[in-house]
Amino acid sequence: AMCLASANFPPPAPPQGALAPGLYSFAGGREGLYCSDEGSSAVICNRAAVGTWEGFTVEIVEDFHREHPSSPLVARLALKGGKDGKYCADDSGSNVICDRDSIGDWETFTVVAEDPDEYNHPSSTYGSLYSLTSGRTGKYCADEDGGIVCNQDAIGEDETFQIIGLDPPSSPPASVLTDADFNYLPYVQMMVGYHP
């Protein structure tokens, strides 16, 4: 995999693979914009900056990378949105929404490492690319105009996401963070697995 870096981003991109529980942002492949938890309406990737609603708490349900480090499968995970701290779900016939109180199959997503050279992700300066598949349908999730929809049979640019680490493990959950907690991001944004 190619290591992508930016002159404005001092730490090197970490090796793709391991994903730890914690607070992350997601950048969608359609325009490279951050995904936002809009509550019961949708998760939409249309934000230029990260604030409270753009932070997602990742909980690892199953760690594939630990047992098979060379596999592109990284983990099966659950996401809690930053707006209300609710679990995100691939809602039947709808967008991904964050309005659930517990984890079931519909509230899980499998993360798959993708080759950044294959996709022209608009914000790939910051690190590695991933695709997500739905625990409800097994289909790929896509960054579409109206929100993230998990109905795709194949991967293209719109089905790739960057997963960007936002916190050290001791940070509070996204539901108690404020926009002020994210002011440092342009200077110290760190990637999955990178802990200074």
How is this structure best described in words?
The chain is mainly β and 196 residues long. It contains two helices and twelve strands; from the N terminus they run ββββαββββββββα. The protein has helices at 64-67, 185-188; strands at 22-28, 34-37, 43-47, 56-63, 73-80, 87-90, 96-100, 109-114, 129-134, 140-144, 147-152, 161-165. Strands 1-4-5-8-9-12 form a six-stranded antiparallel barrel. A hairpin with a 5-residue loop joins β2 and β3. The longest helix has 4 residues, at 64-67. It is globular.
What can be said about this structure in brief?
The protein is mainly beta and 196 residues long. The chain has helices at residues 64-67, 185-188; strands at 22-28, 34-37, 43-47, 56-63, 73-80, 87-90, 96-100, 109-114, 129-134, 140-144, 147-152, 161-165.
